Input
Amino acid sequence: MKAIWNNTVVAESNDTVVVENNHYFPAESLKKEFFEDSIAHTSCPWKGRASYYSLRVNGELNKDAAWYYPETSAAAANIKDRVAFWKGVKIEK
Output
């Protein structure tokens, strides 16, 4: 699977985990040069507290376009050390 934004592959892996229709990519599959830490956080009742990354590709910023759970709940252990995308990031085979 590939995560694509602004015509650029920002993550690629054959080992994604699908939860609630979102592909979670292994952290090591991210092309780190496109990721910036964000101060944003949200909470999920069963997964835990999410942190975000923004994407910067070809000079354009996609704020808080990727999220991950630094500490997952027991119920979400399968997405530990994984990152998912939204905000216009396309997931393709």
Q: What stands out?
A: The radius of gyration is 12 Å. The first strand starts at residue 2 and ends at 5.
